[in-house]
Amino acid sequence: MAKPTGPRQAAHISAPSGGWIVAMRRAWARDAPILLWSLLLALLILGPGLGPGYLLVRDMVWVPDLALRSDFLGLGSGLPRAVPSDAAIAVLDELAPRMLLQKLVLLAALAGGGLGATRLLPGEPDRHQLVTRLVVATVYGWNALVAERLLMGAWPVLVGYAVLPWLLVAGRRWRVEGRFPLVLLALVPVGCLSASAGLATAVAVLAATAGRGRTLRATLLVAAANAPWWVAGLLHAGSATSDAAAAEVFALRGEGSVPGPLAALTLGGIWNTSVQPDARTGLLGWAALFALLGLAAVGWSSWWRRTPARDRATLLICWGIGWGIAVLTWLAPGGVGLVSAHVPGVGVVRDGARTLVLCAPLLVVLVGEGVRVVARRAPAVTAARIALAVGAVLLPIALLPDLAFGVSRQLRPAHYPAAYAEARTLLEGGPGDVLVLPLSTYRAPAWNHGQLVLDPIGRYLTPDYVASDVLVVDGTPLSGEDPRVADAAAALELPTPAERSAALAAMGIGAVAVDPRAPGPAPPELAGDVLLDTPDLRVLRLEGVVEREVDRWWYVAMAAAWAAFVLPLVWATSSGLRRLAGRRRRTVPRR
Fold first, then answer.
1. How many CA atoms lie within 13 A of 230 on its CB side?
2. What are the percentages of helix, strand and coil residues in the chain, rounded to 5?
């Protein structure tokens, strides 16, 4: 039979692409309300934080140009706490204005998870679908976990939290269709920008995909995506254990009169009570518990009946691991501390409330299903149905009003003093590392509205830096993991300025940056050339610097780790571009 030619063949060739375009339009029409609502919630949450300047909140330290350096690649002297997140931002901030990049990352993290969570709802769509999906998106984006992690500055955790439901959706597609979804190659590395986020990502991926030959491939993927931090951790195994007292400090906490395990049921209970929203510590905390768990209980039977057994198991496994680890830190902090003090890497789970990200998918799906059940039983009166829909969607906001407007205006942009940029220029390309003084971990500078933030000086400058990693909580000092901090402290106790400077130079310190406005006693005098002396920053250059040497095998190990991390992203990008090019070719009629 002759092959068709002319217009008929052109129509045949373009049909698959046309069908794909139609499907995309239908998906957009279905998802647009959820996307817009999630973005509106994110804008409301950030509020004044979207203004000009940088949001500097506790561990969230963004600078105008983060220089890629060996510390951020896992080759520093201390256990890397910001690998691979700092390296990722150091690369990305070459592609977009740094101030804008921070806002975009936060908006994406706060708005990105809601739509994915709605894809976890069971069964076929019905007339209550839109309301149910809006409720799920609201609960996922507006809760205690989001508020507390935002105030802690844990933006990699929030990015992983946003990615989590999409991982579960992709894993389900892999099981159902039997084909590996390329989107996992991009989602998994994005979900692994910190150690705790990487562990949650690994649990979610394995729970969603395990079985029938998928387990090994999924394990290799999550191991590769987490390689930068676990390989760096192995290289620093001698300092990878944690202070046993830290487990007690970081354990799950109650919120007001709500005990820790109950607060965890609604994604609250962070150890730092100063960032717990006021609404969670009063009557609204109990109201949130009863309202959300009540709706979840109403929706349980329907969810169980309408959800395939494998999907139920996935969400239940994630929830059990997340809530179980969190409550373990509350029940037996001494045991957690004992293990983390002797087993390298266990300290990753000492902040029990971080694992609650794994509980969110099941919670929001059950709440959404509960709203669906209530809506079906509601009176068939238009006004009543509208009131129920609006009330259900706005309920999470009413239960946690503190989250609005920059978490009650606690998120306010700041501008760095001009002296920081001058110091960066003076130290660029110089020998040795920078010692940041005084040796205290956090600052509350007036130029940052008095908000507590991890000392930003080291990140602002270009060389590797040594800064205190000793955390003081309620007067209890928790030892850090960088041995050079203790060496620097010992050098500063020597009797003369010349001896102090010589000891620092011998350990690889080429310059010292001092924050004169930091509280506490002034650092001891040092000998060297004063490069900068302003009320905001003093910089001293030391002589006779002995460069710190890194074992060449460390370079080999970390090069392999970073290759494993980047390869899935490169593969996903190249495969996506090839598929897009193929679709475009199929839309061109043959003549």
1. 15
2. 65, 5, 30
For the cut 90, the answer to whether the pLDDT of residue 365 exceeds it is yes
Query: Could you tell me which residues come within 8 angstroms of residue 335 by beta carbon, excluding any fewer than 6 positions away?
Result: none
Measured in degrees and rounded to the nearest 5, phi and psi for residue 4 equal -65, 145
Rounded to whole angstroms, how far apart are CA atoms 182 and 174? 10
CA distance 360 to 117: 9
Q: Which of 30, 105, 31 is nearest to 66 (CA)?
A: 105
Give the SS3 label for residue 59.
coil
pLDDT at 129: 87
* Span 55-80, average pLDDT: 91
Least confident of 36-40, 112-116, 427-431: 427-431
**Band of the pLDDT at 11, cuts 50, 70, 90?**
very low
- Mean pLDDT over the full length of the chain: 90
Within 256-399, strands assigned E span none
The strand pair at 433-437 and 465-466 is best described as parallel
Burial letters 432-445, b for 16+ CB under 10 A, else e:
bbbbbbbbbbebeb
Task: Write down the pTM of the prediction.
Answer: 0.93
- Would you say how long the chain is, in residues? 591
Count CB atoms within 10 A of the CB of residue 306: 16
Buried b / exposed e across 323-346, counting CB within 10 Å, b at 16+? bebbbbbbbebeebbebbbeebbb
Distance, CA of 378 to chain centre: 39
| Mean pLDDT computed over 170-174 | 96
Q: Which two tokens stand for residue 280?
A: 């969670």
Sheet holding 529-533, edge to edge: 465-466, 433-437, 509-514, 538-541, 529-533
- For the chain, the distance separating the N- and C-terminal CA atoms, rounded to the nearest angstrom, is 20
Q: What pLDDT, in 10s, does the model give residues 465-482?
A: 999 888 877 777 777 778
